[in-house]
Amino acid sequence: MKVKRSILIIVLWGFFSFVWFLQNKHFIFQSHLQLSFTEVLLLMNSSAVGYSSIQAYALFYTIPFIICVDHFFFPKSVCYIVRFSKRRHLYVRVFTEIVVVSIIFSFMHSLVNVLCTSYFFSFEKLQEVSFFRIALCNSVLLVLFYTSVGLIYQCLKHLTHQSHVAFFLTLLLVGGWFFIEKLFIVTSWGPMKDLTIYTQWFEEHWTMKEFLFAYIRHALLVFFLFFMHSFLYERKDFVS
Amino acid sequence: MIFSHMYRILKNKRSWLSFCIVLCIPFFEIAQLIMYQRNSNEVFHPAFAFFLTGSSIGHAPQIMLIWFLPIYFLMLVADDPIQDYQTGYRYVLISKIGKKKYIFHKMFISFILSFFTMCIALVVNFIFVSIIFSGGTFTKGVMELNIEGNALFQFSVNHPYAAIFIFSFVSCFMAGLAGLLGSSMSLFFLDRKYAYAASFFIWFLMILKRNSIVYLFQPFTEYGLDVLIPTILLAWFIFLVISTFVFVYEVKYNES
After folding, report:
1. Partner-chain residue, chosen from A59, A71, A168, that has the shortest CB–CB distance to B193
2. Burial tier of A119 (Cβ tally within 10 Å: 0-12, 13-18, 19+)
3. N or C: more exposed end of chain A, with fewer CB within 10 A?
4. How far is B175 from chain A (nearest CA, A)?
5. Within an 8 Å CB–CB cutoff, is residue A10 touching chain B?
């Protein structure tokens, strides 16, 4: 399992680095763009398109995240249940695994962003605009978002009894919801509208209160999905 | 064997679900275009209301279908070798017809079914847009554009139906290759978790690269033959090399 996890982390690192270079090469290699440092940083972390965009969170990274959820820990076989005195304890273990994968995934995303950006831009300048602090804030919100995605995937897995069908439906649900928010829920709030921390920070639209509200909204979503999934888990038939 | 394989796919609810999704996604494009033209007197030209043209805002249906094409075809047909392996039917078939025929058959059926599924989805979409947007002339200003030195664009503007036919054929072929990629990964890994992940990563890297394979699906764009021909050749080369490697490895070296 250690080798498998190491390979998974290396592949994830490679994937994020590849996406980062493809999305940002126009900004780092083309000096003729005549943009200021903050403008380049804003465009590189834009909420519309790019490495840290809502589109990327919903469409690029959902599948790699589900793959990580499936591969990072041992599959739950029938004999696994007898190791726990209560089913609830097993459920908490499953939830913890989703959170752990979300943390690894989200921080890996931010780590690649921070390291690659630091390589091409001056460390002092990045510190001046609080880039590292904001990357950390973004990672925390991503952990909550991907925990929700992981819980949705697990719910669908229990409903369909097939991991690949659940994989497919989660992808459709998250991708579909992204487009619904983008095209039809333009003015009112949606969970994905909070995933714009970089843009809101650099454009100075959000104060500390808005940041806090974004975290609370996502934490409530995780809380709701946690309970919804727990109802399904209580009735899960492990044998069949 | 072909008939038994087809019968199994026809009886599989998961395959039907995937087929219905591929068939239904283009209808969202029609719905979006109807909503778009509701506030004006203009009616879309049928060729510009066609799914592949992508006249809607955001290109949501195109992204949902084309970006995840191998996943749909894995669900539809291409993960069949994994089911054969799990039930043990793989060994029955291999002892009956030989490994070479078995592998070839799985890849061939995946390519053909993926090709025709995409073809049916596009034909149904074309029939509907021809009826709904009959007599329309609105092209969002594309007809008035003049891109210097782009022969493909000029040809597309002068012959819109021929352009959408050519791009539809290329799209169906690419869909067939997506199915072929899915079946190659299924035959190689014999595990859904790895087959789905590998197919997605290969397809997605082809989408994310500078000259994306998505350009091959969309008519009336600024990309000329100088961009599209190298892109299509590279895509064909990569998919065919992967499937040839899997075929040779499975037939010559894999003794399991």
Report:
1. A71
2. exposed
3. C
4. 18
5. no
